[in-house]
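Input structure tokens:
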């Protein structure tokens, strides 16, 4: 039995702690904040409740496996999990509206064909088929196994171009895929959104990102009743059941090392009160330091008078009418908030989130982080909230008359609550681009120290954070 200290009660830290305690290790979890969940934050006011981080779940099998391996129960025994159907509705840059089914490539192709022309549906489906090739080629080494000591095989993008032959050029970026294979500004907007939601520039990110729309439209999107905070609560309960020593309000200042010269290893952690907590293994779930400039999220929480109308999609994406302006605002030399950005309007059919007869909705936008933009300026935040709400009303104009109040959250709030530099959101790990988009490994140069969470392999996103915990637990092993 090893003494293990986990730093941080984000979802990666909680999941790793539960797995390691289950196999017999003595696990202590130290969290500087008074509560758990990390990015899965929560805001409550006047009987309305909102997720302040991620709101939807992909690949729920990751958390089904966690619950089964740590307590022999189903995920559905711990939370109410619902498939989101339709998967998304879209207001495209030219004003076209299209609704896409959940977990059905055939129905997605049919919907795009009906709205944009049969050729558009065929081209989108063909691109997703090549995204499937990326998924199959990289699923195990990129998601389920530790990053190899020699990651050079993952430096090459496995995306296969539509045309083959000596003269065929493989697309280098996601934007190349759109220009060469989709050839439609409306389809380009659909594809761009998968990059933008993680703060990635489609003009730079490798073509391999096509596995994200393939995965989402093949395997589906899911919602947890009560919001994803309920999932964080379920994983916390599993830690408690496995007798993890949970210490909230306990800040770790640094990892302590020991051993002979040349054979140093992690031997514990130094706490803010000056005491040392000894350990055989230290697992760090804190946000990585030194990551600057990556975009964050602006979130607008909406308390709405009256019940949610029947038939309203859970997720509506309003696309930016000017792609060049949005990319310049996010990734140009002088980052700024885009006045008409790509945004998600989330309206869950969940009576637990609002007082009887009312509705809670959330708008999310990818924005520059705290630093390049001063998100602590109340006037700036208020003005941008006005712009975002006006843009969202293009898709749902009735919201304006029903608004009781709104609350804006910025990358500055994320930074203050989670420690993420600038409030940045970690992206998924991607093959290609000579390894530029691979997350750092879970191991460390210092023996006995491991890293877990969205800032490390296999990258950001709730499912990948859970995979990170699985990988780290496997690296530590059983007693």
């Amino acid at each position: 039995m090893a003494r293990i200290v986990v730093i941080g009660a984000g979802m990666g830290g909680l999941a790793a702690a539960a797995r390691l305690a289950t196999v017999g290790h003595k696990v202590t979890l130290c969290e500087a904040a008074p509560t758990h969940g990390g990015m899965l934050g929560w805001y409550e006011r006047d009987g309305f409740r909102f997720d302040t981080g991620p709101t939807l779940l992909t690949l729920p099998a990751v958390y089904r496996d966690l619950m089964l391996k740590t307590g022999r129960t189903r995920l559905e025994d711990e939370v109410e999990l619902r498939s989101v159907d339709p998967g998304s509705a879209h207001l495209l840059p030219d004003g076209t509206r299209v609704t896409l089914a959940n977990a059905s490539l055939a129905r997605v192709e049919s919907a795009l064909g009906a709205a944009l022309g049969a050729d558009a549906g065929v081209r989108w489906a063909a691109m997703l088929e090549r995204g499937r090739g990326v998924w199959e080629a990289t699923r195990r080494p990129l998601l389920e196994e530790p990053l190899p000591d020699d990651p050079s095989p993952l430096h090459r993008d496995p995306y296969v171009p539509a045309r083959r032959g000596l003269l065929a050029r493989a697309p280098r970026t996601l934007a190349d895929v759109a220009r060469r294979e989709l050839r439609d500004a409306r389809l380009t907007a659909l594809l761009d959104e998968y990059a933008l939601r993680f703060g990635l520039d489609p003009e730079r990110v490798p073509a391999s990102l096509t596995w994200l729309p393939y995965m989402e439209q093949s395997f589906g999107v899911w919602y947890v009743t009560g919001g994803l905070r309920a999932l964080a609560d379920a994983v916390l309960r599993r830690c408690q059941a496995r007798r993890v020593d949970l210490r909230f309000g306990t800040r770790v200042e640094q990892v302590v090392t020991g051993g002979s010269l040349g054979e140093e290893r992690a031997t514990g952690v130094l706490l803010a009160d000056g005491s040392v907590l000894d350990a055989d293994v230290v697992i760090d779930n804190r946000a990585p330091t030194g990551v600057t400039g990556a975009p964050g999220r602006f979130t607008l929480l909406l308390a709405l008078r009256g019940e949610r109308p029947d038939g309203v999609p859970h997720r509506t994406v309003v696309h930016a009418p000017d792609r060049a302006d949005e990319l310049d605002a996010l990734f140009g030399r002088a980052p700024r908030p885009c006045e008409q950005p790509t945004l998600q309007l989330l309206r869950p059919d969940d009576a637990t989130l609002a007082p009887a007869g009312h509705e809670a909705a959330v708008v999310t936008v990818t924005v520059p982080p705290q630093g390049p933009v001063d998100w602590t300026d109340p006037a700036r935040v208020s003005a941008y909230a006005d712009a975002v709400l006006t843009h969202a009303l293009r898709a749902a104009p009735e919201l304006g008359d029903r608004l009781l109040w709104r609350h804006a959250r910025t990358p500055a709030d994320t930074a203050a609550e989670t420690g993420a530099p600038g409030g940045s959101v970690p992206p998924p790990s991607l093959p290609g681009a000579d390894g530029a988009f691979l997350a750092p490994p879970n191991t460390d140069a210092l023996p006995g120290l491991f890293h877990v969470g969205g800032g490390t392999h296999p990258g950001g996103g709730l499912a990948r954070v859970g995979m990170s915990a699985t990988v780290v637990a496997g690296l530590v092993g059983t007693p």
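The two ends are 5 Å apart (CA to CA). The chain has a mean pLDDT of 95.
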